[in-house]
Sequence to fold (692 residues):
Amino acid sequence: MKRTVLAASISLTVSGLLIAGMGSPAVAADAARPHPPKADKTQAVQDARDSIAAHPAAVRASSDDTFKSASVLVDRDGTRHVHMTREYRGLPVLGGDVIVHSAPSGAFRESTLTLKKSLSLPVTPKVSAKRAETLAQQKFQGKRAKTTSKLVVDALSGTPRLAWQVTVDGIAPDQSPSHFNVLVDAVTGKVGQTWNAFHTAEGTGHGYQVGDVPLTTTAISGGYQLKDATRGNGETRDAQNLTATNDSPPAGWGKAFTDTDNVWGNGTLSDRATVAADAHFGIQATWDYYKNVHGRSGIKNDGVGARSFVHYGNNYANAGWDDTSFSMIYGDGAPGDKPFTELDVAGHEMSHGVTSATAGLNYFGDAGGLNEATSDIFGTLVEFNANSAADTPDYLIGEKISSTPLRYMDDPKKDGVSQSCWTTNTKNLDPHYSSGVGNHFFYLLAVGSGSSQWGNSPTCDGGTVTGVGNDAAGKIWYRALTTYMTSGTTYPEARTASIKAAIDLYGASSSQCAAVEKAWSGVAVVPTSTTCGGGTTPPPSGSNLLANPGFESGAVNWTSSSGVITNDTGATAHSGSYYAWLDGYGSAHTDTLSQTVTIPATATAPTLGFFLSIDTKESGTTAYDTLKAQVVNGTSTTTLATYSNATPSGYTQRTLDLSAFKGKTVTIKFTGTEDSSLATSFLIDDTAVTTG
Fold:
């Protein structure tokens, strides 16, 4: 049977739930097919550099600026998005990062940035580094470990200035690791913006158990260790109720959890491994969400798993993500209470790492609220994706930690401190409270306004919002975060970013894009110059009329046989993670895949394009198994082309003429038919209906 590829790993029993260990099965023939060529990210960076050289005004660049690539995203159609950091006369520019968007040809399209004009300022400090460090240390509360400083250009807000960025490492009064950053004006000595690079859930709660869950571990001599080789060697360790400073917690710190029978914990706090099972499941669930939904391999998308430390500190009633050491910490909570190991907390904290590796949102101002909201959003989606019986998914943050939830996404102001509606003063709030605007937006986008099983969500403008569901809402936010947000993105700029993301994924005239606009208005973030558009206006020449054309949103917008749209690792996508897999069973079977589009009467040369890969166990030139590319127009079905097992191939682009259907609403349909023996798989990806 196709679509069954099991990883060779060790599974285990936790509190009575048995998942039998399994070896690797024989790998299907599909796995031997050469993978499609990867997008050339080196070329994308070069294109971005060429664009900056040719269009310096678009990125506020001068001859004193240099740029380094921070991350690269190449879309299915070859469009490039290169996030670059800026240096001015050799100094890092805080708030100077830029995303350069280029066409598949490499031609410059647009830029995303917050810097308002080119930099022009002296770079010789009048205040010494030592003096700046002393001033910063005076702001730090807790136990200091070390202090470092570097000269930067502060372009985060107002007039850019020369500054010392001082980092005071240590332990905060609540036992959290701290990387306390202070900007000190290098000319006047005035102390400015401060923030902590260590992020916590800001809870005082009383953790909980995730119940009976399967865990993937590593066999060692004499037993097993809580390390997951299938998820980048993500590991859970015992902090032994100690705290750490500097590289908190440093590599090798703490004690490994080992066990002889591969059963971890006993469901009570009498066993130190019980909360280790919670934390390890949090690593797994977060990894699986990002991998299966967004095609992201680990927090940094580099295949490396995170570490978790449980039993951190003495009665430490918090949890947090430390980007410096790439690790999670969980305290045991206040005396008599449970540890701080809730699943949405794990997803929340590790999502801070995703934000750091992508948009790099600041931890103050509107960007700070967006940073925290992003973690609440993805922590919630991790919870929904895991769908654990022990923790029914909801839109409450940390509801099992204390007697009341830490935050409410349906109406954030219910906690008494968060904002539900954006104002120009939102930027002055603590990020955990300004995050309410982003949380409220996401709830409206996913669930909608008014009463539901999840809560009761009012809108700030009195309007009505119809939700598009978690899947679409999550993919829009992820696309906005990774493709259009920079370190200083504001709430109005986040509106622009998410509208662009919705257009990319679903089209300008889609219900998803319209819902994004309504949801932002529902939290009082006013419209910008970027709108969905759509309506009855014909799409521009060359645009793709198909929604979700590369299937990266899963089985949405398409009608298909069960299991056709998939990210199964038994075969490969042309690009991204998802693709359509028709047939491949080796028995009499028919699969279909279809989507309805309207082809404008004004189209000059409309075409259907797609990439097709054919893998077969048949031999010879007889067509036993076929794939038909068809157009259904009312009661009439026209077959544009037929492919078969007789012409096996790797991914090849196919282009078919749709001129006969101009001015008509038709259904594009693929029908795969397999005979009674010997499997043939038809793989389709990166589809397009273009207007010429």
